């Protein structure tokens, strides 16, 4: 890294949200609860489609780096009982939004949703197909762990209509895997991908992480080259989020071996160069896609979106989260369910129509316009403030203070401003969260410390 890059680092280090939503989850409070959720769900216009996200907070084993809400639950009956609760929560939601609602995206995440017994997964999916109207071209996806995919699952996923699977790889290096407590052979990764594709689950995402203990630049580039040879349709390349105040298990890693910010930047650059060289197109902050993937088309047509699961081609105005810790994003506001599966089950048991919502945030007019700007910046790396102001009936001078705030980024060559148009440069891509942050009216130096490293 040269002196100019080091000085960028000193100005743009620190912590920031990933802006998978605005306001971010840091703004959630218990001032919002089940009654708000009920009101916002009931007022969804009948002719509008929704997306569904179902969260399964169980894994076969836990990885030390993982920041997700998940635990090991050995008892298969208990996992089936959790699936029955998902079904019941969906039933309660349908009483509010009406039966036969069109679904354009359906995603199972976690944790590891394939920890649900096959019969339980089949029951929930059959109920969804019966009670909702799944669009013929809907993306139906699931997160899988290549080390523990049950042999009957690929065929089951195809039978139930899944057309995309997302699998974690993170890093192929044995020392890094040892530091993270996630030992995953090359054969497990490639066999999993082949089994899914052979079964007819054609679109595959692979997740990689840089910034893990013992990773080095040459090693992450080797991992990127190797997984590229499997021809995944999409890759997510996450910077390791070290948040031990939220996830104590991260302290079980050799944290003294965590790479510093300069090395993280070099690792990200090495993966970026490798994947571009292999023909993948960069998308937003952290995705790479095959030019034939639907996300490449969404990017080209300016219809890419960002939600709690990251970048998406989903255009539905409402995302309904089901299960422990799941977040819903509705036009009225955002809500989150009880985080632990025990608390979730308890709230579901309160009454036959109770919703397990514990916190959230109500959106006002200013939140909506800033959310639109932040989403465009994060997805398209550009935004025309004049267009946004016209759309929201605001004077074109409305965001002058925010534009002024970006002046140092312009001087650093990370952003270009022409009139009211903001364009993040290629050099600025990894700083896109800093551009978004200029429009975040809740962010303070103090609140930023609750997020992970911005670089
Ligand atoms: C919810 S996990 C599900 C993946 C699946 N259970 C597996 O392990 O293969 C989705 C992805 O989140 C990413 N992830 C988890 N913890 C992270 C952290 N602390 N920092 C960055 N990425 C993380 C990993 O890349 C992981 O594959
Ligand atoms: S990375 Fe996947 S398998 Fe590992 S703990 Fe997180 S969700 Fe579970």
From TrEMBL:
Its cofactor is [4Fe-4S] cluster. Residues 44-276 form the Radical SAM core domain. It comes from the Bacteria. S-adenosyl-L-methionine 2 binds at residues 65-67, 111-112, 170, 182, 207, 241. Binds 1 [4Fe-4S] cluster. The cluster is coordinated with 3 cysteines and an exchangeable S-adenosyl-L-methionine. CDD domains: Radical_SAM. S-adenosyl-L-methionine 1 binds at residues 53, 110, 143, 327. One of its GO terms (molecular function) is coproporphyrinogen dehydrogenase activity. Its EC number is 1.3.98.3. It is found in: Cytoplasm. Pathway: Porphyrin-containing compound metabolism; protoporphyrin-IX biosynthesis; protoporphyrinogen-IX from coproporphyrinogen-III (AdoMet route): step 1/1. [4Fe-4S] cluster binds at residues 59, 63, 66. Gene3D superfamilies: 1.10.10.920, Aldolase class I. GO terms for biological process: protoporphyrinogen IX biosynthetic process. It catalyses: coproporphyrinogen III + 2 S-adenosyl-L-methionine = protoporphyrinogen IX + 2 5'-deoxyadenosine + 2 L-methionine + 2 CO2. One of its GO terms (cellular component) is cytoplasm. Keywords: 4Fe-4S, Cytoplasm, Iron, Iron-sulfur, Metal-binding, Oxidoreductase, Porphyrin biosynthesis, S-adenosyl-L-methionine. Monomer. Belongs to the anaerobic coproporphyrinogen-III oxidase family. PANTHER family: COPROPORPHYRINIGEN III OXIDASE (PTHR13932), OXYGEN-INDEPENDENT COPROPORPHYRINOGEN III OXIDASE (PTHR13932:SF6). This is Coproporphyrinogen-III oxidase. It comes from Komagataeibacter oboediens. The gene is hemN.
